[in-house]
Specification:
Elements: H1 2-24, E1 32-40, E2 46-54, H2 59-68, H3 70-80, E3 88-93, H4 96-112
Parallel strand pairs: 2-3
Antiparallel strand pairs: 1-2
Helix pairs in contact: 1-3
Length: 113
């Protein structure tokens, strides 16, 4: 039961941070930023928010922007969530979608041969 509750809490944070990023983050056209998953610490004091960035060449630039906006993101999240304490957000770059795409391309090449 506790694990199910933790998963729901992670999904809630993922949804709300995604909305906040969509409204706050000013990216160039053609840059896509997606919150892929959230992992909240068992003590609920920190939450790692994994973001996928396409194209991956823009990842360092977007991560810097997110780090500059972290205070605003945290404040908006504090207002949205009705729980205390609200976990401190830590942004991390999620390379999994990029790696999955590379594997799919390799499999397509093998299939064509």
């Amino acid at each position: 039961m506790a694990q199910e509750r933790a998963l729901k809490f992670d999904e809630l944070i993922k949804k709300e941070v995604g909305k906040i990023i969509f409204h706050l983050l000013d990216t160039r056209p053609g840059v896509l930023v997606t919150v892929t998953r959230v992992m909240t610490n068992s003590n609920l004091f920190t939450a790692e928010v994994f973001v996928s960035i396409y194209p991956s060449e823009k990842a360092p630039e977007v991560l810097k922007k997110l780090e500059r906006l972290i205070y605003e993101v945290q404040q908006l999240l504090n207002r949205k969530l009705k729980v205390r304490p609200v976990p401190k957000i830590i942004f991390k770059y999620d390379k999994n979608p990029e790696e999955a795409s590379k594997i799919e391309n390799i499999l397509k090449e093998i299939e064509e041969k």
